[in-house]
Design goal:
The structure holds two protein chains of two kinds. Chain A is mainly α. Helices cover 76% and strands 0% of the residues of chain A. Classes of the chains: A mainly alpha, B alpha/beta. Chains A and B meet through helix 1, helix 6, helix 7 and helix 8 of A and helix 1, helix 5, helix 6 and helix 8 of B.
């Protein structure tokens, strides 16, 4: 027993990176070593495939309006509109970001779980005893959530990048995927995925409870779209012009405003407004999460 | 634009893979082991220098924690010395866990300080190479294997991942390394907790109820392990309410009740301080006569089979009185209270839910 702790391994160098870099890698290990992350990724792939299929049918009916539903003159005008270079580019952009509207929910919920699962499984104490620098721990989690968001985006974009040219080919139209319309949508989609992953993380850090955070995340996301109805109703009562653009204060509406080329809804404010609002919420939640995590006792 | 996107995508992938693999080639080439704060060689056998000893002392000074008006820990002060096993005892709700959590910087004290080698836990350089802790037997993700749990701690602390496998073997969990935590028995969970605490080969061990849920063989294993660690010069602070176990394991005791210090010292001195709980077994043919000569301070109660217990007079006084009265004494034995009696006396009436 005297040689109880003689260790060959401890004589070797471990990860000699900075604390933050070590913790980010540890966060990736945490995600890799449970089934949750893999289930989310699988779910996201299935969801993206479904979204591409539905989107494909939708776009097909734009390019080939069904006879009888619209008058022949309208059909010709519609075809001409969607077959113009701008129209085809918009279709290509919509294909390239298929499923993004609800796909970001995967990033959002994974962000929530990255922090709340520590409290649900009582591993928070282990984490904070191992590294008693709470700001650094949460910062590493922010980085992990951002990377998970980016990974979802990457997977979705790769699937779409393979499918979209095939779709365009079968529809006998051609559009450059390198054009600004498509590239802008794809890049803003990346911003949305990253922001929602980090948004979820901040929400989880503020609330801690896994159940409460998941429910709150879903309510925030789905409930956001209710803001459009609420402000439309308010406009009908008070006729204040700003009320038409006001739904952008809801996070998910802000996200849609940011990624949509053209107005996301009638009288929607410009895209950058949405971006600033979404990122503003995210930064505020993360700052609140860090402040609370530093102050709270880990019991 | 396509080229730009492709670069971003491929670059991002390469970065993710590199980040998740962790160590770079240059890191791997380093085998000198002289990371900051890393001992030149692992602590082993009796090789803990005296200079290290003071680094292992735990000082708790005026520690107080108030939760919504309730003082869970109330002006608590004690010290824990290296090279000894210190039992931290108290009834449920006495503030043991809160105290240990304040020591580990998980809970912020309302007042007072708790230091290890004179330094607050949060200010230690590479804390888990100095202090190993078990806080909760259920503290791992249910879907994660024991091995992965330890590797994550290693990765966070900058300890080589292979160390996880070493400590798993050390605590006898090698065969269950790749099973998920969900399938672990309570005893296995405790062993995994011990394994995590030993990862950094720490000078100080802080263990909250490590014997809970262990079978007799496991309890014996834990006792041998903690005694060995203390014999190597390490500080071992272990909370428990298994008094019989503690009497066999601990050198020193810190007893708390209702958040306050009830007693501190070696096991013998804590029990010895309770002399008013001791009694003397006397065998004499004439117990009634003995009671008469001892006077009114002493209480004599029959002990069955002809013996009698005397309280209020010690063996010397009884022997002298018997000699003066010409009484025959066949047996005269001082019985000190056991740890359980001492504990119950020290904490009497303070175990109520507050």
């Amino acid at each position: 027993m005297t040689a109880l702790l003689d260790s060959a391994a401890l004589g070797q160098a471990g990860d000699t990176g900075t604390t933050l870099a070590r913790l980010i890698r540890a966060e990736f290990m945490k995600i890799r070593t449970t089934s949750t992350g893999w289930l989310f990724l699988t779910g996201f792939i299935v969801f993206t495939a479904m979204a591409l299929t539905i989107n494909g049918f939708g776009n097909h009916s734009q390019l080939y309006p069904e006879q009888g539903l619209v008058s022949p003159a309208q059909a010709v005008a519609q075809e001409a509109h969607f077959r113009s270079p701008a129209g085809v580019a918009a279709i290509a952009a919509s294909m390239m970001t298929s499923g993004q509207l609800f796909g970001v929910i995967f990033a959002l919920l994974l962000g929530v779980l990255i922090v709340t699962s520590e409290f649900a499984n009582q591993t928070a104490a282990v984490t904070f005893v191992t590294v008693p620098r709470r700001t650094t721990v949460i910062t590493a989690k922010v980085a992990a959530a951002a990377c998970c968001g980016a990974l979802f985006w990457l997977v979705g974009t790769v699937i779409a990048a393979v499918t979209t040219p095939l779709f365009l080919y079968t529809q006998h139209v051609s559009a450059s995927l390198a054009g600004w319309t498509v590239a802008r949508s794809v890049l803003l989609s990346l911003v949305a995925f990253v922001a929602w992953g980090v948004f979820g993380l901040g929400l989880g850090a503020v609330l801690r409870s896994q159940m409460a955070s998941v429910i709150a995340a879903l309510i925030v996301y789905a409930g956001s779209f209710g803001a459009i109805l609420v402000f439309t109703a308010l406009y009908n009562l008070f006729h204040q012009g700003w009320m038409l653009g006001a739904p952008v204060i809801a996070p998910a509406v802000a996200s849609e405003v940011m990624v949509t080329s053209g107005p996301a809804f009638p009288h929607a404010p410009p895209a950058w407004t949405g971006g600033i609002i979404l990122i503003g919420y995210t930064v505020a939640l993360v700052a609140g999460g860090i402040a609370l995590t530093k102050r709270r006792d880990v019991i | 634009m396509v080229v730009l996107l492709a670069v971003v995508v491929i670059g991002g992938l390469v970065w993710l893979v590199r980040l998740s693999r962790g160590r770079t080639r240059t890191d791997r080439a380093r085998t000198d082991g002289a990371g900051p704060g890393l001992p030149d060689r692992p602590l082993g056998g009796k090789r803990v220098a005296a200079a290290l000893m003071s680094r292992g002392r735990i000082d708790v000074c005026g520690l107080t924690k108030e939760y919504r008006g309730v003082r869970a820990v109330d002006d608590l002060s004690f010290t824990v010395e290296p090279g000894r096993v210190t039992g931290f005892l108290g009834p449920n709700g006495a503030g043991k866990t809160t105290t240990l959590r304040m020591l580990l910087d998980l809970v912020e004290p309302t007042a007072g300080t708790a230091t290890i080698g004179g330094v607050r836990y949060a200010e230690l350089d590479q804390p888990i190479r100095r202090v190993g802790a078990i806080l909760e037997a259920g503290a791992a993700h249910k879907d994660r294997t024991g091995r992965d749990h330890l590797r994550i701690v290693c990765q966070s602390a900058g300890i080589p991942l292979a160390r996880g496998d070493e400590v798993l073997e050390l605590v006898g969990l090698g065969a269950a390394a790749r099973r998920t935590f969900r399938g672990y028995s309570l005893g296995m969970r405790q062993r995994l907790g011990v394994a995590a605490a030993l990862l950094g080969d720490p000078q100080v061990l802080i263990l909250d109820e490590p014997a809970n849920g262990l079978d007799p063989e496991g309890i014996r294993w834990m006792r041998d392990l903690l005694r060995t660690l203390a014999a190597q010069g390490r500080t071992v602070l272990v909370s428990s309410h298994l008094l019989g176990e503690m009497a066999q394991l601990a050198d020193d005791l810190v007893i708390v009740a209702a958040g306050r210090l009830a007693a501190q010292g070696t096991v013998a001195s804590v029990i010895g301080s309770m002399t008013y709980l001791s009694r003397t077994l006397v065998r004499t043919p004439e117990p009634e006569k003995l009671a008469a000569v001892l006077g009114s301070d002493a209480v004599v109660t029959p002990a069955g089979d002809g013996g009698a217990f005397v309280t209020g007079a010690d063996a010397v006084a009884i022997g002298d009185a018997a000699l003066r009265a010409g009484l025959a004494i066949h047996q005269l034995v001082t019985q000190l209270p056991d740890l359980e009696a001492a504990f119950l006396e020290l904490t009497a009436g303070k175990a109520a839910i507050r």
